[in-house]
TrEMBL record:
It catalyses: (S)-ureidoglycolate = urea + glyoxylate. The keyword Lyase applies. This is Ureidoglycolate lyase. It comes from the Bacteria. Homodimer. The keyword Lyase applies. GO terms for biological process: allantoin catabolic process; purine nucleobase metabolic process. GO terms for molecular function: ureidoglycolate hydrolase activity; ureidoglycolate lyase activity. Keywords: Lyase, Purine metabolism. InterPro entries: RmlC_Cupin_sf, UAH_cupin, Ureidogly_lyase, Ureidoglycolate_lyase_dom_sf.
């Protein structure tokens, strides 16, 4: 079993994987240009509301996913923090677990995964929780899932 200790999410640390827009220090308007970065097959803007009733404890990561054609953004609607797990691909395009990183996103942090970034599905740390998700939908398969050869146990500081 691999182990990961989650760190507080920062714009800088997440930059290789996407963008973090913190509304706690927002003044006026912020346009998240990266939110709809998409390739040819992704042509339909989607805004989904998703309610997650509970997450399994202890938290173990057994699969990661990518959206090959579109960036993906999550916005907490009821002040739930969430776990963000990302990693780089190896030469074969599969998760390189040596590069896996775990972060805790504050509810005021809007997280946008760049197109094609390996990530764990939305994982609130307080449930039930409601999030908005937006991306460009493509009818020829938005999501490629990778089952991990070895699960990752994730912990976070109290
Ligand atoms: N709603 C949805 O598709 N979610 C996943 O892609 C995810 O990253 O949670
Ligand atoms: Ni996703």
């Amino acid at each position: 079993m691999n182990h990961l200790l989650a760190a507080q999410l920062t714009e800088e640390a997440f930059r290789p994987f996407g963008t973090v827009s913190d509304v706690s220090d927002l003044t006026g308007l912020l346009t998240i240009h990266a939110a709809y970065e998409a390739g040819e097959p992704a042509s339909e803007p989607v805004l989904q509301l998703v309610k997650i009733e509970s997450i399994p404890q202890p938290l173990t990561i057994v699969r990661l996913e990518i959206h090959p054609h579109s960036a993906q953004t999550f916005l907490s609607l009821d002040m739930a923090p969430s776990l963000v797990v990302v990693c780089e691909p190896n030469a074969a395009g599969e998760p390189d677990l040596a590069t896996a990183r775990a972060f805790i996103a504050r509810p005021t942090q809007v997280v946008t995964y760049n197109r094609g970034v390996l990530h764990h599905r939305l994982t609130p740390l307080k449930t039930p929780a409601v999030f908005a998700m937006t991306m460009m939908h493509s009818s020829d398969g938005d999501t490629v899932v990778f089952d991990l050869q070895e699960p990752i146990a994730v912990a976070w500081p109290d």
